[in-house]
Design goal:
The complex is a heterodimer.
Chain A (H helix, E strand, L loop, with lengths): L4 E3 L2 E4 L5 E6 L6 E8 L3 E9 L14 E5 L5 E5 L8 E8 L10 E2 L3 E5 L1
Parallel strand pairs in A: 2-10
Antiparallel strand pairs in A: 1-3, 3-7, 4-5, 4-8, 6-7, 8-9, 8-10
Chain B lengths: L8 E5 L4 E6 L7 E8 L6 E6 L4 E2 L4 E4 L5 E6 L8 E9 L12 E6 L1
Parallel strand pairs in B: 1-9
Antiparallel strand pairs in B: 2-7, 3-4, 3-8, 5-6, 6-7, 8-9
């Protein structure tokens, strides 16, 4: 079946502009995660959505970052007033169920963001 | 989550077995050992996980030391497609759902 999809694949923007990154999780998956992979920083958690519960935003690096998940499916990660240090690959993952520590997270291909 | 230590890089030859080590000396009794890998230009993908006993699946085997302070991911017959960064991750049964990635081991497979 269809996996996690993300769009756009690549995004180039100018410093100070806002960007929106989209994630379509696997159908029926109740949990959705955003991660960021920066050169030299490795993979880091950003935010986690589970059903109708309040999201875990503990990984968001600043208040310029926000995310929404509409209708329990598609999610949008928004970065306002982008900075050059925001350049990274932004990865989305989904899973079902989410209450088990052994559940597999399925990752999308990522969006490569370059801030000039 | 407890910390894991892996070699930065390893190299092996095609069609030979590969043993990828992971040290986790501070592992707790409720930590599961997970392995993910990330192929070039792709998102990470699940490989295998275990708690105490050795585990096998179609991708790999996981050998867990008796004291659980280390584990080894075994690729029985490496192919060029197995070239990737391999991450060993501990997940507490009562902890957060997020994955905490370390630096991983970059595996190179020679033809």
């Amino acid at each position: 079946g269809a996996g996690v999809s993300q769009s756009p694949s690549n995004k180039v923007t100018e410093k100070g502009k806002d960007v929106e990154l989209r994630c379509d999780p696997i159908s029926g998956h109740t949990a959705l995660y955003w991660y960021r992979q920066s050169l030299g920083q490795g993979l880091e958690f950003l935010i986690y959505f589970q059903g109708n519960s309040a999201p875990d935003k503990s990984g968001l690096p600043s208040d310029r970052f926000s995310a929404e998940r509409t209708g329990g499916s598609v999610s949008t990660l928004t970065i306002q007033r982008t900075q050059q240090e925001d350049s990274a690959v932004y990865l989305c993952a989904s899973t079902y169920p989410s209450t088990s520590v052994w559940e597999t997270q399925y990752f999308g291909p990522g969006t490569r963001l370059l801030v000039l | 989550d407890a910390k894991t230590t892996q070699p930065n890089s390893m190299e092996s030859n095609e069609e030979e077995p590969v043993h990828l080590p992971c040290n986790h000396s501070t592992i707790s009794g409720t930590d599961y050992i997970h392995w993910y890998r990330q192929l070039p230009s792709q998102g990470p993908e699940y490989v295998i996980h275990g708690l105490t006993s050795n585990v096998n699946n179609r991708m790999a085997s996981l050998a867990i030391a008796e004291d659980r302070k280390s584990s080894t991911l075994i690729l029985h017959r490496a192919t060029l497609r197995d070239a990737a960064v391999y991450y060993c991750i501990l997940r507490d049964v009562g902890g957060a759902q997020k994955l905490v990635f370390g630096q991983g081991t970059r595996l190179t497979i020679n033809p």
